[in-house]
Amino acid sequence: MSQKKEITTIQLIPIDDGRTLILYADSAATTKLAARKVDEAEFTAFCIESNCTATIFLAEGVPQKVVMN
Question: How many angstroms separate the CA atoms of 40 and 21, rounded?
């Protein structure tokens, strides 16, 4: 997401290699993802190892920082 937009969804998706994909999106991207228009959706995603944690710090619904432990 190039502009700071309020996120409406956070998805935690287990992947085959044991890591977890964390995906978050604003309302426009959430609508496109729900309609299976993934190529048109702008979202942020990253993976964490199965033995790690991630904290997403928000301010008024806008991601400010991600800390992984």
Answer: 19
Query: What are the domain boundaries of the chain?
Result: 7-68
Residues in the chain: 69
The tokens of 25 are what? 């999106």
Q: Tell me, what's the pLDDT at 52?
A: 86
CA-CA distance, 60 to 69, in Å (whole number)?
Answer: 24
Question: Residue type at 59?
Answer: A
- Report pTM: 0.67
DSSP secondary structure code for residue 40 in this structure: G
User: How many angstroms separate the CA atoms of 23 and 65, rounded?
Assistant: 14
